User: Fold this.
Amino acid sequence: MPNPTKFSWTPPTTNTDGSPITPGEITGYQVGIRPASGTPGVYPLLAPVDPATDTSDMLAEAAPNLAFGDYAAAVRVVGPVDSAWSPEATFSLVAPPPPPPPVPSAPEGFTVA
Assistant:
């Protein structure tokens, strides 16, 4: 997706063993971003998301740290024990097209004699 504006996710309701998430197990989230050419699961840019009730993070906050190009991102639960990373989603940051050149107005007063 070119030039997205936010990340979003559905919070987990269970632990990996099937037991329900209890209060305090999720203290926040962390979004990891890597160049598409990078190694999956290795995120040079990490963005914390607080509080734990937030289930989206504005990509615009991270975008100033990113050059135009292709990226992959994932999110994980932060708590007393962090979760594994979610499956990755890919996106692109594309430079806006240059403005069109000015177009002169048509001549006026044209006649045939």
